[in-house]
Design a protein that fits this description.
mainly alpha
């Protein structure tokens, strides 16, 4: 089996992602070296960035003497995590962290620390309320999410709730593909999309 980090696989992966997300261009996912000139020595796009980040994470874990793979217990979803976090009292320190995040943007490690600290306050309102209207309100209330690195804050929340599962989609990509196709086959009615799905399924089975 080929290493998923092998950049020779990236063009094919980007084509498959393009089939799943037709509104995105292949260049969103992968730009091969030298495409943008001789000074572009490394591949660009979401796929190479994701792989590089994961490889860097694994290297850091090895340097720290930790295993890159979660244990069976840490891989399981922490069912009580949300309840435990919400049950924590909203202290003055947490309120102060929220105030700081309204304007504070640097240093980024401090942003991440303050963000984690506000989890009880944020989760309490986020999971009690529902609906698109409140989601918009949440995004306005926590404008730090609009930062260029705002996605890292969402990853922090994910890790708080499901620690050890942040790379699950990447690790289980083939299973994700097949399950998604099964759901799509049942729900999609558009003829053009059905043709694309049929073509993609054929490529997947080759």
């Amino acid at each position: 089996m080929q290493n998923p980090g092998d950049h020779r696989l990236f063009p094919e992966i980007s084509k498959k992602l393009k089939a799943i997300f037709p509104k995105e261009s292949e260049e969103t996912w992968y730009i091969e070296p030298k495409t943008e000139g001789k000074h572009q020595t490394h591949p660009k796009g979401k796929i190479p960035i994701k792989v590089r980040n994961e490889q860097s994470k694994q290297r850091n874990l090895r340097v720290a003497g930790l295993s890159g793979r979660p244990t069976s217990s840490s891989a399981r979803p922490q069912k009580s995590s949300l309840q435990t976090i919400i049950a924590k009292p909203v202290t003055e320190e947490i309120k102060g962290a929220k105030v700081w995040l309204q304007r504070g943007r640097t240093p980024w490690p401090t942003v991440l620390e303050k963000w984690r600290l506000t989890a009880p306050l944020r989760f309490r309102t986020l999971f009690i309320h529902s609906g698109e209207a409140y989601i918009n309100s949440y995004l306005n209330e926590w404008a730090i999410l609009e930062h260029n690195s705002g996605h890292e804050l969402l990853l922090e929340d994910f890790n708080l709730l499901w620690n050890g599962r942040e790379t699950r989609l990447f690790d289980k990509w083939e299973s994700f593909e097949r399950k998604t196709l099964t759901i799509a086959k049942k729900d999609i009615k558009d003829k053009l999309t059905k043709v694309l799905l049929k073509k993609y399924k054929k490529e997947l089975n080759q």
